[in-house]
Amino acid sequence: MHEIHLLKDLINKLERIAEENDANRIAKIKLRCGALSHVSPEHLRYHFMNMTKGRELFNDTHIEIEVMEEIDDHAYDILLENVSLE
What we know:
By secondary structure, the protein is an alpha+beta fold. It has one domain (2-85): hypothetical protein PF0899 fold, CATH 3.30.2320. The chain contains 2 helices and 3 strands. It has helices at residues 2-20, 41-52, and strands at 26-33, 62-67, 78-85. A 3-stranded mixed sheet has the order 2-1-3, covered by helices on one side. It starts with a helix and ends with a strand.
């Protein structure tokens, strides 16, 4: 359940970003999954949607996920590349 911990951290980060920018909703996020993160985009999207279900800030958030193939310093990570706020 490595991805659950990473997603909790990601959701907390998104909440801070929204608060700092007086945003009402996170419209879109772009994530990059490291080559060794062992998380499929479908699995990640499923857990993200379940963990944010019923929370207005994440209502209809579009999630774009890129899986990296090369091993680098972030090979085990899920990185937030971009956030679109409303």
